[in-house]
Write a structure and sequence with these properties.
35% helix; 3 domains; Flavocytochrome C3, Chain A, domain 1; five-stranded mixed sheet; 19% strand; alpha/beta; 15 helices; seven-stranded mixed sheet; FAD/NAD(P)-binding domain; binds flavin-adenine dinucleotide; Methane Monooxygenase Hydroxylase, Chain G, domain 1
Length: 574
């Protein structure tokens, strides 16, 4: 085993999506040139999954036209099925308008109204059109605006690409650094820092039918879990109503925001039976369940047990609107489903889309380990509770990117130096990776990954029930056991994508176990977690966050109270 290269910085930002880039810009601003910063990603920096965000970023910009911070906050809390922490929600709605203006100042080409002001479109569960957007490529433009802005501080920040974190170095609850694999050189690197911001995104590549990029494998959550940090509310997974069949590529909610219809095989807009007021723009959990019911009860198309689907009809919007507002959607539908939405409806069904759960963090994004923050989809503050509203996630990344960037920079300014980890800790973690690298067992890691995804699709999807979840948990534990017998064919450490896949699989197996075990324990239906055997919300027993920790025999669960400041739980009707 080679001696790892060592690098020391004041503050390390792990992940370069919207949350990581926003944190980096803020840390550079707050550090005033005095801090040695670093940002790292397992891909190229601008290839983070955030570039795929399509439809918009929610913010109240027009109180004079009837929107209000209180309304945005209430929509978010109601959308969350009353599991969101309300102090977090209030801070969020207050801060996001400033972020929209900042991005504007940094050069983002927001779509505009005829009068030249920033345009906003309707999104599911929002009672006012408040999604700010750049056509249907919002994340792409946000990422590039932040990346460009970061280059102004290029002298202060080291930018590491193709550097995959394999372990957080935390000893007796104190953080010292990150162990990573330099994919290009095939070498270990130890990155020491006084402070760390984890911004590694969500975990839904655990599912087979998903809207996520292939790289979104929950690494940061799994690394934190193994390092002893708590993960919160992992059973809450969002299924987006419009995953394009058969690929799962996202058709943005903006397609419905712009006026698209959901239609069953009788040609009916079936949402009238599920959410008569908000119709297609009800929150995602409600629309996803409605679609599954239509499919299961024979009013869909295709195979009800396979990729059964319903239709999204955009034809009435007309070519001009589709080409101007939804150009990417048109291109994606033509390329991936062979259908031009100007001429015919497109096949869609619910697809795994967002991790509401994540690393347990407080309202400032601070984790349980001093000097370590979490921001963006990897974190659970909890802003989204049991169900996130569309366009609130990119917004969260911007708000808590800023908050954690500033807080971590201040911490790094005060701390004298990075801690020194024990040599045996680093050696132990390197050995763990090398054992996987040199594994010569019979199990094919790609097949295991495939099986895991099938299990998650079938047993922990839109609808769940005790028997299926128990079977799912059993299957995941068997996969974990078989993971001990994987074999790698690629013998080189240089750009070994097979090794990357195995490291990701190890992470995904840990998280899948948590999601399913957490879902089994939560015997109620709330937001994105719908139990057929417990169809009602149960505030008496489950108005609480689930906290999972790694125990000697598997995950151990405890429960935390929900912060309710202004809006007591009520029945959710749309
Ligand atoms: C197709 C799609 C469209 C969406 N559209 C919208 C939208 O319109 N509006 C909205 O609000 N939300 C949207 N969302 C959700 C939103 O895009 C994401 O929640 C958000 O972009 C996540 O950003 P992030 O910064 O937390 O993580 P990411 O953008 O996923 O970035 C994670 C970073 O961490 C790095 N990383 C991960 N693991 C490691 C490791 N082991 N070592 C080193 N680096 C690592 C990655 O390389 C990457 O740089 C959409 C989601 C999808 C799937």
């Amino acid at each position: 085993m080679t001696v790892p290269t060592r690098r020391t910085h004041d503050l390390l930002i792990l992940g370069s999506g919207l949350a990581g880039l926003r944190a980096a810009v803020e840390a550079a601003r707050a550090g005033r040139g005095e801090l040695d910063l670093a940002i790292m990603a397992k891909t190229q920096l601008v290839r983070a999954h955030s570039v795929c965000a399509e439809g918009g970023t929610a913010a109240v910009l027009r109180p004079e036209e009837g929107d209000s911070l209180a309304q945005h906050a209430f929509d978010t809390v109601k959308g969350s099925d009353f599991l969101a922490d309300q102090d977090v929600v209030v801070r969020f709605v207050e801060e996001i308008p400033r972020e929209i203006v900042l991005l504007e100042n940094w050069g983002i080409p927001w779509s505009r109204r005829e009068d030249g002001r920033i345009d906003q479109r309707p999104f599911g569960g929002h009672s006012f059109p408040r999604a700010v957007f750049a056509a249907d490529k919002t994340g792409f433009f946000e990422m590039h605006t932040l990346y460009d802005t970061l280059q102004r501080y290029a002298g202060q920040i080291t930018q590491y690409e193709d550097l995959m974190a394999t372990s957080l170095l935390v000893e007796e609850g104190r953080f010292s650094g990150v162990l990573a694999l330099d994919l290009v050189r095939g070498e270990f690197v130890v990155l020491l820092a006084k402070a760390l911001i984890i911004a590694t995104g969500g975990a839904c590549r655990i599912y087979g039918f998903t809207t996520y990029s292939h790289t979104v494998t929950g690494d940061g959550m799994a690394l934190a879990y193994r390092a002893g940090l708590g993960l919160k509310d992992m059973e809450f997974v969002q299924f987006h109503p419009t995953g394009l069949v058969p690929s799962g590529v996202l058709i943005t909610e903006a397609a419905r925001g712009e006026g698209g219809y959901l239609v069953n095989n009788r040609g009916e807009r079936f949402m009238k039976d599920y959410a008569a007021k908000m119709m297609e723009l009800a929150p995602r959990d409600i629309v996803a369940r409605a679609e599954m019911r239509e499919i299961e009860e024979g009013r869909g198309f295709g195979e009800p047990q396979g990729l059964g689907y319903v239709l999204l009809d955009l034809r009435h919007l007309g070519p001009d609107k589709i080409n101007e507002r939804l150009p990417l959607i048109r291109e994606v539908a033509i390329k991936f489903a062979g259908k031009d939405p100007i001429e015919e409806p497109i096949p869609i069904r619910p697809a795994a889309h967002y991790s509401m759960g994540g690393i347990h963090a407080d309202i400032n994004g601070a984790t349980e380990v001093p000097g370590v923050w979490a921001a963006g989809e990897v974190s659970c503050l909890s802003l989204h509770g049991a169900n996130r509203l569309g366009s609130n996630s990119t917004a969260e990344c911007l708000v808590w990117g800023r908050i954690t960037g500033e807080a971590a920079a201040r911490w790094a300014q005060k701390e004298k130096r990075a801690r020194e980890p024990r040599r045996e800790t680093i050696a132990g973690e390197m050995e763990r990776v090398m054992r996987l690298f040199s594994a010569r067992g019979k199990e094919n890691p790609f097949a295991l990954r495939q099986e895991l995804r099938q299990v998650m699709d079938q047993k922990a999807g839109v609808f769940r029930e005790e028997k299926g979840l128990e079977e799912g948990l059993g299957a995941i534990r068997q996969l974990k056991e078989r993971f001990g017998r994987v074999g790698l064919a690629d013998k080189s450490l240089v750009y070994n994508t097979e090794l990357v896949g195995v490291l990701e699989l190890e992470n995904m197996l840990d998280l899948a176990e948590l999601i399913v075990a957490g879902a089994l324990a939560r015997k109620e239906s709330r937001g994105g977690h719908a139990r057929r055997d417990h169809p009602a919300r149960d505030d008496q027993n489950f108005l609480c966050h689930t906290l999972a920790r790694k125990g000697p025999k598997g995950p151990e669960f405890s429960y935390l109270p929900v912060t309710i400041t202004s809006w007591p739980p009520e029945e959710r009707k749309y």
